[in-house]
Amino acid sequence: MAEAKAVRRRPGRPRQEGPSPVYLERREEILARASEVFDVKGYDAGTLEDVAQAMGMRKAGLYHYVSSKSELLFLLFDRAWELGFQRMAGVEEIADPAERLAEVIRRHVSLIAERKSLFTVFLGRRPLFDEDGERAFLEKERRYVGIFARAVRDAAAAGLIPPVDPRLGAMALLGMTSWVYKWYDPATATAERIGDEFVRLVLGPRPAAG
Amino acid sequence: MAEAKAVRRRPGRPRQEGPSPVYLERREEILARASEVFDVKGYDAGTLEDVAQAMGMRKAGLYHYVSSKSELLFLLFDRAWELGFQRMAGVEEIADPAERLAEVIRRHVSLIAERKSLFTVFLGRRPLFDEDGERAFLEKERRYVGIFARAVRDAAAAGLIPPVDPRLGAMALLGMTSWVYKWYDPATATAERIGDEFVRLVLGPRPAAG
User: Fold this and answer.
1) Is A173 on the interface with B (CB under 8 A)?
2) Residue A44's domain spans which residues?
3) How many distinct structural domains can be found in chain B?
4) ipTM over 0.95
5) Do B209 and A207 touch (CB under 8 A)?
6) B129-182: per-residue pLDDT in tens?
7) Is residue B133 part of a domain?
């Protein structure tokens, strides 16, 4: 549905393949403001009116970018996945299993911390999308969990972490790192420090074992 | 506010110190049904009407137990804390730091898994309570995190886990174990198995370190 909007041409503009950079930038801003609105109010209570107000726009203007609240939520969740995969780009090419697992942990923590509002909405109670939407998101979830599971599997195979079930290990680390959205406060601990401590907890040396 | 209700005497009953067992049992059932309603609908959208319906009661009957939706939510959150502390009873007396940390992890996982609906509400977006309620809950949160933090500190001091900041280590483990509410499915892995794997990940031997 986002597609249909995106290819709409503006009068007097040259034909273009996709949406204009200005359009995309504006929509990106709408997603950021919408995250904040839904973070504060919850997505049941938050309205398109609230988002328009946060943008200093009229609701009619907002409709140029999103056709409904459910489309906005879909775009928001989609954006969260997109950011996740962007953040993990190249991580699976890291050959050293310790470095790879450490990177997966650090990158996920930094993403959650940087986009706390978005991930508070994303990681909270999820709206039910239509069949295609649900299928697409489940597929993305599987892919994202897979990045963690392979990192766990390879670190365990190399004897760097205890031999755990890769999927359960992945869920353990996803929980550890995602939960940061609940308590992150850069005044207390920066995302970098949190990432380092988490990596140490999982991969660091334990004196008594030596 | 729960107190005021609780001491109300029923006609023809002998004077009693607190609420009757029947009253408490019924209220407990209301909390369980309310958890399910708010789990499915979210607590913004779920109503007292829905809870009464789930109980097979009239809304008027429900008012004998809770005076408002916000009181119901308060009781629900309070119950979650109570269950948490009950589950952790005696854990701090375990002298062996490995056993203690393992128990803290296992107990928290089993609690979340057993009361998934309640903790889906509890760990989701939290309503803002009045000043006294907020203070009480923050105090409970500190106490609960403290149980994890001391277990981490003592295990690190004994060289059983890497030397990490106790609070950040506590938040890591609370995230790992709380997140279970998002994906727990006993058909895939029982709470016991999840607890065992998490304990292994945190405390288990790593072959490469030996």
Assistant:
1) yes
2) 18-67
3) 1
4) no
5) no
6) 999 999 999 999 999 999 999 999 999 999 999 999 999 999 999 999 999 999
7) yes
